[in-house]
Amino acid sequence: MSGNITLFYGAVINPQALTSYDVLPRCLLAVGNTGNIDWMVEDVAPHDLQQVLAQHGCSDEYLVELKDGEFLLPGFVDTHTHAPQVPNIGTGQQYELLDWLANVTFPTEAKFQDVDFAKRMYKRVVRTFIDAGTTTCCYYATLHLEASKVLADTVHEYGQRGFIGKCNMNHDSPSYYIEPSVSASISATQSLITYIRSLSRASSPHAALGTPQPLVQPILTPRFAISCTAPLLSSLGELAAGDPELLIQTHISENPSEVEYTNKLFPEAGSYAGVYDQFGLLRRGTILAHAVHLTPPEIDLIKAKEVGISHCPTSNFNLRSGIAPVGKFLDKGVRVGLGTDVSGGFGTSIMGEVRNASIASKVLQFTKAAEASSPPDPEKFENRQLPIPTLLYLATLGGASLCRLESHIGSFAPGKSFDALLISPAGKQIGMWGSGESLHSASEESAQALLAKKELEEWLERFLFVGDDRNIDRVYVQGREGLE
């Protein structure tokens, strides 16, 4: 963007809560040269535009007027994915989790010991996620320090907002892909944290809360309990205790065989969640992926510790892991976001997770209805279809809250970073959307205003369920367009 203020005028979808989002057909939004939103006016009639601009000391020199059918949407937040698994995406469909890791995933990840290979692959990987509308991504790298630095460099170069974690794994991994000792694992992890924090680009110091947020940040990444010995988990807990700003990501209760084996390895913990808790790894800023088979006490523990859950429905279906009871989590007040979990999941777009999260909730609704003596409580989420506002929230603000960034990204408000997608039907005609024809008509001005909101809601739903990256015309992170 230019050194001047950039103005956007047109349709905006703005998530607010699990059950609501603002529909703003005539919004005027100003992005300053810091990349933060300076101000916004939610409804400006065309004949009032010049007057409102003048009131804010602006002209239309840097005005971007959205076309009919276009709208701004906060960028997607992917709270769980594996960057080095993109090369084997779409393979290994016959396996469940543990066999899939052994036969497909670990052999691929081991190749990233070759730094040149990592450089070639990660450029494609990061570009693919950005093109899919992911402005913030929580990446698992491999256990290799140098390749993990390459991933951080690539995310930094492209200007994406990202959390990069080197996997910690010194147990129950193949001989060709395992860390030699606890000390080696911790030393490499500390080196990566230091390296990432030396990268320069950050959001503006005038951001919400007054604290600049680096675009690329480290995240502590014990792969999962099975891959870590107790001494390694203990050392990671000590590292986390000494660095309260550090986020943590790992897996939990994805597959019944995994849960059973974990409980056998750590019988004193009492549960899978108890393993992480006893080593000090459950806290605000911990992201647990999957959570398909949690027990009620584990859910209560996760809530008490303010831990977030990354819902990965595509992967959960694909590896036959099960369906996470997301509605139950939401009713309990647990933070939830969405994750693509490549390559257990076979797509890089959060839109795919929106669709499969919707399907998963519908499956739970009709299967539980057959067992229940009464219909689900309409005031709760459990065993009910997740509505559009909830799905949108999980893809944006929900994910931001897992990353402790809900005051910075996930919605549009003065002081927040302008991480946004400009959605356009022009790239691909979807039914009547983008055809130039409206399915509705109205003559009265008041009716036209209502109609504009109705059509904008329909555009959003159609984009989420039948759109793809060809409908994402522009991607912005911290006000920066293109991310080239």
What does this protein structure show overall?
With 484 residues, this protein is α/β, with parallel strands linked by helices. The protein contains 14 helices and 17 strands.
Question: How many individual helices?
Answer: 14
Q: What share of residues is helical?
A: 25-40%
- Beta-strand content: 15-25%
Overall pLDDT, averaged? 92
User: How far is it from the N-terminal to the C-terminal residue, by CA?
Assistant: 13 Å
Low-pLDDT windows of residues: 204-210
The number of strands is 17
Q: Tell me, briefly, the overall form.
A: globular
Computed Rg: 23 Å
How does the helix and strand content classify structurally? alpha/beta
Biggest sheet, in brief?
9 strands, parallel
